[in-house]
Amino acid sequence: MVPKKIFFTKGVGRHKHELQSFELALRNASIEKCNLVKVSSIVPPGCKIISKEKGVKELKPGQITYCVISKNKTNEPNRLIGASVGVATPKEKNTYGYISEHHSYGETAQKAGDHAEDLAATMLATTLGLDFNPDKAWDERKQEYKMSGQFVRTHSITQTAKGDKNGLWTTVIAVAVFLER
Question: What ranges in the chain are assigned the alpha helix state H?
């Protein structure tokens, strides 16, 4: 199976049981009806990025669904947690792209998203043979990557949440969902 489409979603759930908080995060992300199979980080050549709304409509209850998922959880009151997925796709349609997962504590959504996007872009840049300085800020490298003409886009989706004030389990997820048709 080589996926033809991909969409991105995120969610948060809170419950006294850890597993149930994860289920509620899946529901919040609209992917709870699927049997999720975690895969690694390659966007196949020609894979089309579609909206969450279009992607969810294609899912069927019980479907085996391949995805890249970032997940984080806590039952510590007020602890900031984050889950982020970043993607970098090349200009050449016959070349593959990269997806990265990042989960964090204490980072804002912007910072976690930038980190995930940077990871994916760095993996793609090294594959394409682009020179880069890992000590430069992400914003600087992002501009260099785009100016190289070899990148089409980078993107991230991030979910953050503070741990429930009463100590309920809080779970956050960010997911890249693959579709085969």
Answer: 18-28, 52-58, 109-128, 138-147
Helix axes 109-128, 138-147, angle to 10 degrees: 40
108 in Cβ contact with 153 (< 8 Å): no
* Contact call for residues 85 and 41 (beta carbons, < 8 A): no
**CATH, residue 52:** 3.50.20.10
For the chain, what is the domain count?
1
SS (H, E, C) 78-90: CCEEEEEEEEEEE
pLDDT tens sequence across 132-180: 677 777 777 777 777 677 776 889 999 999 999 999 999 999 999 999 9
- Per-residue pLDDT reduced to its tens digit, 40-65: 999 999 999 999 999 999 999 999 99
| Residue numbers of the domain that contains 169 | 5-179
Tell me the C-alpha to C-alpha distance, in Å, between residue 152 and each of 18, 25, 121.
39, 31, 11
Nearest 5°: CA angle at 74, between 175 and 166? 125
CA dist list (Å): 68 to 8, 19, 64 = 10, 19, 13
What is the phi/psi pair of residue 157, to 5°? -130, 135
